[in-house]
Structure formats: C-alpha cells, structure tokens
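Model it.
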Amino acid sequence: MPAIRQLALVLPAGSHYNYMVVESLLRAGQHFIQYDVQFFNESAGALDWLLHHDAPVQAGLEREWAATPIPLPNYRSR
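Modeled.
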C-alpha cells in the first residue's frame, strides 16, 4: 500500500497561472503519482474530501491548526 493515497491541493480562486503550473508538474510526474489528486479553493472542502466526510476528525484538525497558525510568505510585497 502506498504511503500517499490522496493529495488535496488548495489554490485560491482566480489563481489560474498557479493552477496551470501545478497541472504541468503533475503531468510531468504522472508516472510517479499513483494516487488521487484534487484541486480545491478552500481548505474545508479539501479536508472533507481527504477525511471522507468525518466531521469530528475534521473539526479536531481545524482546531489544532487554528491554535498554531503557519505564517505564509508575502510574495506580493516584493
């Protein structure tokens, strides 16, 4: 059984260029990707898909992540 079975990619709505870049990378590595890949505009939908609609587990993960936010790089300020 592979270590990765599903990959959820969250890209903001309207980021068409980023979507195309990721699609081309996935296409280039398709021989190595043996799992389901889905794109989402928000993390809640991605979690729902990954966790197979297991609401208690999803709520626990969202609480855990909210308690320790990850700072994102600010690329727009360059």
